Amino acid sequence: MKDMPTLLWFRRDLRLHDLPALLDAAQEDSEVLACYVLDPRLHASSGPRRLQYLYDALRDIRDQLDGRLLVTEGRAEERIPALAKAIDASAVHVSGDFSPYGKRRDAAVRDALGDIPLEESGSPYLVSPGRVTKDDGTPYKVFTPYFRAWREHGWRAPAKTGPKSATWIDPNDVGRAAKATDIPDGVAQLDLPAGETAARKAWKSFLKNKIADYGDDRNRPDIEGISRMSAHLKFGAIHPRTMAADLKSGEGPQAYLRELAFRDFYATVLDSWPRSVWWNWNKAFDAIEVDEDADAKRRFETWKAGKTGFPIVDAGMRQLAESGFMHNRVRMITASFLVKDLHLPWQWGARWFLEQLVDGDMASNQHGWQWAAGCGTDAAPYFRVFNPDTQGKKFDPDGAYVRRWVPEYGSDDYPEPMVDHSAERKEALRRYEAIR
């Protein structure tokens, strides 16, 4: 006799391989209803490209399950209990979510489920927030010691799951409570395929062709030396544990592992200091002078449009606007320019990135911006102000990246620099000195 059915609720884990929640949902031969809830709050917090990735990833799961994925629309605290009761589920199984929003949503769902347990298994990270702490139990504030402890802590092997790990319930058998909806399409254009099938293929290609040189190439926006796995990780189309299992010794693989550790670190910071999602982690920076007047807003629009007159900055901003992606080195350069040359609030830039980026992740985006602004954990020293021209010469030495995204560079149509970098650097230092 089979056990009562279970509900597998997908969120930031849009995959079927290496999914601990699926292992738990299917134990004892329970039949499993796979579902995703299109919460209207998603539309308020996700740019169109992230929504398009989401929808494409859901289609990929549905195809792998021969159509046996129920997509429904509404608030999770209403739809999940209704579905659980409709199939008489013994439990609802999920991957843990450590974002401030995710924890609030899950608390509401847990309350609404009543006697039906909401079981968490795993997380989107190699090491979940809260697992690695200092000897006194407090969270790390600096990456390097966190990284050492993180490596010593280690992580489990990938979970052995896949499309055939469960007997899947046909959504058509759920009845009126299913309230199934079609997966939307045509929201935005993506510059890379989305979903688990594409993620696994992209990772294999990166391992075969680029990982060996990653340590040297990862800072070069002018060459195709990076993995482009960030969006896949953001949506959980592949688990970092799957990737870490393939990373052997050598400079390239170990440099990549360090980047996965940074992802875990920023998730831990956000979990420990949820205020830092929109406020300075270092509260001393709450007093720093920033420009927010009408002229500041005009400068912000110039930055967004990629018409600052600084080629590497403009190339990055246009890549972002046109593709929904920006090379990480260029993210640092454009962020430094907004904060330290234009003296605008880092939150303005962080919000624009989240709207545009396919891989827009709250923990990594917000704390990457705070690193550039000098107000986060492990922040760049206050006196470190990127010179965009020097950065461009160093990391785009032949100008290939700039030429690709700013074809008018070098002609009369290209604008003069909107600010004097040397003067604005001094002004940034003056403002920082005032709050020391």
UniProtKB/TrEMBL annotation:
Residues 4-126 form the Photolyase/cryptochrome alpha/beta domain. The keyword Signal does not apply. Gene3D superfamilies: 1.25.40.80, DNA Cyclobutane Dipyrimidine Photolyase, subunit A, domain 3, HUPs. It comes from Mycolicibacterium neoaurum. InterPro entries: Crypto/Photolyase_FAD-like_sf, Crypto/Photolyase_N_sf, Cryptochr/Photolyase_FAD-bd, Cryptochrome/DNA_photolyase_1, DNA_photolyase_1_CS_C, DNA_photolyase_N, Rossmann-like_a/b/a_fold. The keyword Chaperone does not apply. It comes from the Bacteria. Its cofactor is FAD. This is Deoxyribodipyrimidine photolyase. Belongs to the DNA photolyase family. FAD binds at residues 214, 256, 259-266, 359-361. Binds 1 FAD per subunit. One of its GO terms (molecular function) is deoxyribodipyrimidine photo-lyase activity. GO terms for biological process: nucleobase-containing compound metabolic process; response to light stimulus; response to stress. Keywords: Chromophore, FAD, Flavoprotein. Transmembrane segments: none annotated.
